[in-house]
Amino acid sequence: KRVAILVSGGGSNMVSLVDSMLKDADHPGQPCLVLSNNADAGGLTKAAARGVSTAVVDHRPFGKDREAFEAELVKPILEARADVVCLAGFMRVLTAGFVRQFEGRMLNIHPSLLPKYKGLHTHARALEAGDDRHGCTVHEVTPLLDDGPILGQAEVPVNPGDTPDDLAARVLVQEHRLYPAVLARYLRGERDVLHLS
Ligand code: GRF
Question: pTM value?
Answer without folding.
Answer: 0.96
